[in-house]
Protein 1
Amino acid sequence: MMAAWSDNIRKVEPYVPGEQPKDTNVIKLNTNENPYGPSPRVAEVIQNPDLLRLYPDPTASQLVDVIAEYHGVDSSQVFVGVGSDDVLAMSFLTFFNSDKPILFPDITYSFYDVWAELFRIPYERPALDENFRLVKEDYYRENGGVVFPNPNAPTGIYENLANVEDIISHNGDSIVIVDEAYIDFGGKSALELIDKYDNLVVVRTFSKSRSMAGLRIGYAISNPILIKALNDVKYSYNSYTMNRPSIIMGTESVKDDAYFKAMVAKVVATRTRFVESIRPLGFTCLESSANFVFATHENIPAKEIFEAAKKAHIYVRYFDKPRIDNYLRISIGTDEEMDKFVEFLTGYVQSIQ
Amino acid sequence: MMAAWSDNIRKVEPYVPGEQPKDTNVIKLNTNENPYGPSPRVAEVIQNPDLLRLYPDPTASQLVDVIAEYHGVDSSQVFVGVGSDDVLAMSFLTFFNSDKPILFPDITYSFYDVWAELFRIPYERPALDENFRLVKEDYYRENGGVVFPNPNAPTGIYENLANVEDIISHNGDSIVIVDEAYIDFGGKSALELIDKYDNLVVVRTFSKSRSMAGLRIGYAISNPILIKALNDVKYSYNSYTMNRPSIIMGTESVKDDAYFKAMVAKVVATRTRFVESIRPLGFTCLESSANFVFATHENIPAKEIFEAAKKAHIYVRYFDKPRIDNYLRISIGTDEEMDKFVEFLTGYVQSIQ
């Protein structure tokens, strides 16, 4: 017999996090991390362990200020969280309290429906078109909010800013969240629309272009009213979430802009080179504006390639989901890592055909 | 006119975090931090910034394992979170889903009612007795869960383990959370009861005795069923909350036990010395088993002392709340800091009388 308290335990469908192999011989192209470390300057600022004994500044003002300055906005327009997952979850909790469904694409970041379920937010998922593009008219209907990534995940496709603006302007009664986790690798940001629309929230992360997945830093930029609403919810829950190493190292990362731009350029160059290398093998990649490509082969099922690569200690990502179950999401590593992967694919494709 | 979306923004009463002065001349005795830094070994493990580019292990298994080993439990009995605030909030969300009210004392950690309000959990607050002690019989009534700190905050009073066990054993149908944030500074832990009662969750933090408030690490120890329930809820929300510096440095802190014990002993010795120093000035302290004391003066109102100390750049904590509005909560700093505070109090008390 189960104890009586078991009735009062929240039942959830637990999310299964992506595989993080402990084997260091693995070529890890499965979680869209940056193959290059962050600015070497970030290590220098954390040498003194004595600073760890004090609580972090709950407003993380040092980091907020440097992000605001970087984007040319006021500090009252910046909200920081423990990764963009935290920022997005807080945004769902803060902004999506309508009885109407929120809208996001059928193929998109896999956490949106998890949060909607957790917070009991109704949602609908308009289908992307046959080219995996947003159909902007699908977002004209009545709704309780809109959220989509740009570039989209896991396709890597960038939606032009005119279409993004069209969706924002058609939803004056809802909050529209544009999740720009990958924007530094290609495409124009919706940040320039922040002052024009009072219903727009742009979300960013340090995990991809800033090489700091291990630190968990994300942020939202919007108008001061929406940022205050986010902070009010955050402080009501746990006011000390971002730790001192993140605040200090994150700040230093933003300050070293030359290093940041150089590393992003390297990843983009490797992406172009990689796409060209696998085309002759029978692969097609969707046009990527991210630090990964979404690739399909003309006659070998994606799942088989995924499994063969894993046996060869190369991890990529496969989604067993409708419409995308013949694609692989391949993070862009170093040139050397991608060369090894191309070498593997060349041998593998030849062995099959 | 407000935009239509403003109706769907969550309304909360934001918590106002404690003051974190940027002025480094301040003697900071207001947030129960440890005056000594963590083990110097923790800085050595974070020299390589390259590790920051990878996502943290979502299970934080390295840290979970070392905590489990330290307490002589299985790793399946340990849940880690971003500070004990995160662990407690997750515990509320996971375990307190009954329609019956949860119970916690009228004078206690100030976040319990904040989380109960946020998650819409009904609650009742039985009054501590006139000596600020728990009345165990108050926890015999039907409830949806029980939570209390031991030692209690902000009183510092430790409740003996027989009374704690009595409350646990009278609540077989509810989860009982014993919040042991301060237990390392005095008193016997409820951890020894974990295997005896399936409804017990013990919560700990690295912020006080381990000098790591700046890292945000907390944990719960319980049986594998309750720990799995916590992890399921956590993964459904945000699976990457603890960052790499916290995992690595936290692990190293647990390994350096000699340093840890020496620093705790120093704080306890200073506490005894401080209490004896202010008694002749007309102060009475509740018997403290924590890294702070709760002090009242025989004829000067606590609020006046609080304000005078602040003018002298010494920050302590004052709560403008029923029953405790004539007390000061004074964190234990270094001997030198406490000597300066005693010097200030001596002059101040003389000037008044």
Protein 2
Amino acid sequence: MQKRNLEVCLTPVLLPLYNIENSIVVVIDIFRATSSICYGIANGAEAIIPVAKVEECLSYKDQNCLLAAERDGQVVEGFDFGNSPFAYTEEKVKGKTIVLTTTNGTYAIDESRKRAHQVIVGSFINLDAICNYLRNQDKDILLLCAGWKNRFNLEDTLFAGAVVTQLGLDGFELDDAAYAAEDLYLQAKEDLAGYTSKASHGKRMQRLNLQEDIKFCLNHNLTDAIPVLVNDKLVKM
Amino acid sequence: MQKRNLEVCLTPVLLPLYNIENSIVVVIDIFRATSSICYGIANGAEAIIPVAKVEECLSYKDQNCLLAAERDGQVVEGFDFGNSPFAYTEEKVKGKTIVLTTTNGTYAIDESRKRAHQVIVGSFINLDAICNYLRNQDKDILLLCAGWKNRFNLEDTLFAGAVVTQLGLDGFELDDAAYAAEDLYLQAKEDLAGYTSKASHGKRMQRLNLQEDIKFCLNHNLTDAIPVLVNDKLVKM
């Protein structure tokens, strides 16, 4: 039987190097976009519309949507909220459509939807659900780390490593980045919070007093919900 | 005292994201370009001229140079040799100027020389010399992995990790990629050959029967020579 490709794209800049026409792309932006998207979908948001630019987000004004915009770790002035997971609770998002733009995560979604067979959204809070789903599809897999402003980051790579570790080597052909991600995860998994505290974005969030957000985003398996991109909207699979 | 930046650029595609005007860039292409360049300079080559394209290499014909060209792991037809380190012995290269183009390494040199304060060439065979030199300069450091066709690769990242490990954290501000490289190296260092055997380029070289080249390129500290780019030529520092 032919092996399925299991690859890790360490930043969106590298995406053009990958053939993803036959792939499920898992977009990963642990601190905090994809963690919040998973939480919002789990809490009954009808849809989350990821857009790359702040202006695009603004164009949804008066359409009865919640508008969420984050840049450089902070809520953009004039918006309902940014990408803190605590803004995506059931009481705030149930039945609502949210239009969201973030520094890294929504850009990664935007880039991958143009070519991928399917785009789903992953985070530690739906890790097992993501792995169970991927295991049962007959498609190649690309784990796409959103990174920080197109650079490599630790926390997204660790999540990619967690997925590689769960899926195992049987039946998959890994690229070098998948091996590296797996080994970093195995080294970090006993103390993810400690390990990611040296990450540049972790430090940035500590400076912005976002420790509670960090802690939340490292929770495992709070939900089975998988956000999937259908047309231009992320909805519950 | 202000800390110096110690960063790792995991593939040349990411180079535009880094400010390197005040940096020493260490170009890394372990299998095999930079290992062979270090070995050639150590063995008395007068200069090695890295060029990005095969045609550019050919234009040096009749100028009394050795012409070396490698693509996809093999010597390009019609050339004196490629980038196997065994072609860079003293008897072959002493006093000679070599014009070299390779799949990844020379591209990385070409991209970095446009902006960097200084470009030097690193490999396991001159690891200690590289680290001693870097330690004593008052410049930022960028470890530039040539990768494989612009993708991340394990062996270049491991060498970057070896440098980070030797330099230590004191006095340096690491980026996330530097932390990751260090941790991968610490995990792999007891058995670099075993670890890199899972690397895609390692497998590719095994298929091409280049095991002896791999083994050679993982030797540590065969020389103190450091190739440095002066104008368009790599010469002994």
